[in-house]
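Before any further analysis, backbone shapes were mapped to integers, which produced the following:

***
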Amino acid sequence: MNLILDRKLLPTSITPLTSRVCRIRYSDSLSISTSDEKENKIEEILFRDEDGIVESLKTLATNHDADIFYVDIWIPVPILKVFYMYMHKREIIK
């Protein structure tokens, strides 16, 4: 995924790092939002740089908050204007 995005934003490991649905979407700014299963927004965090996103994603991967179902990663990567990436247990849907 990082190769497609041409950035080292997403945590990497041989084993899956999260049991949540992660969606990567286009935005002019860097942010992460979390929502419940019905897509009600729980939190939105804005970032000045990509380092902040990396650290927050590591924290979210180990967070056991039962209310969080979706993690949306909003980044300014042009390919995401065409489609978004949806990841859940090693699946990518375009």
User: Anything to note?
Assistant: Helices lie at 2-5, 50-62. The chain has one domain: 2-6+19-87. Residues 2-6+19-87 form one domain. DSSP finds two helices and six strands in the chain.
